[in-house]
Design goal:
The protein is of the alpha+beta class. The chain has a single domain, classed as HIT family, subunit A (2-Layer Sandwich), CATH 3.30.428.10. Helices cover 24% and strands 19% of the residues. The chain is built from three helices and five strands; from the N terminus they run H-E-E-E-H-H-E-E. A five-stranded antiparallel β-sheet has the order 1-2-3-5-4, covered by helices on one side. The structure holds guanosine-5'-monophosphate. Guanosine-5'-monophosphate (5GP) binds next to strand 2. Guanosine-5'-monophosphate binds next to strand 2.
């Protein structure tokens, strides 16, 4: 069971469908633990999403339920993707929205990678 207030994992979510190749995505990396592809609505010159191959609703769910191999493999993939995209030297930002207050839209854990220009302050406070 997921550990958050989010509903149980829905295998019909859009990222599960991308993983099954039921809908297209601009894939930049795939390995045993992760799939990375360009965001459909980029918020920076480079905006890539990295998702684990396992069925995890959120970051909290992933941290609690995934195996150590999955966790290590996933985070290594995040860094490898950023490096392969040429972002390691200039720098980049990773972000994961978790749950309602963060506005998580897709209930399959994912990390955003942003880069390609100076990204400014981390967050806007009202
Ligand atoms: P969240 O708000 O859940 O952290 O981010 C979900 C992200 O998924 C958004 O940035 C959104 O643009 C992206 N997204 C939603 N649907 C699709 C899709 O069908 N394909 C791709 N490549 N990205 C998507």
């Amino acid at each position: 069971m997921p550990v958050t207030g989010l509903p149980p994992y829905d295998p019909a979510n859009i990222f599960a469908r991308i993983l099954r190749r039921e809908i297209p995505a601009k894939v930049v990396h795939e390995d045993d633990f992760a799939l990375a592809f360009h965001d459909i609505n980029p918020q920076a010159p480079v905006h890539v999403l990295v998702i684990p191959k396992g069925a995890y609703v959120s970051q909290a769910d992933f941290a609690a339920q995934a195996s150590e191999a999955e966790i290590v493999g996933f985070w290594r993939a995040v860094a490898a993707v950023a490096k392969a995209l040429g972002l390691e030297a200039p720098g980049y930002r990773t972000l994961s929205n978790m749950g309602l207050d963060a506005g998580q839209e897709v209930p399959h854990f994912h990390v955003h990678i942003f880069g390609g220009k100076p990204l400014g302050r981390m967050i806007a406070v009202d």
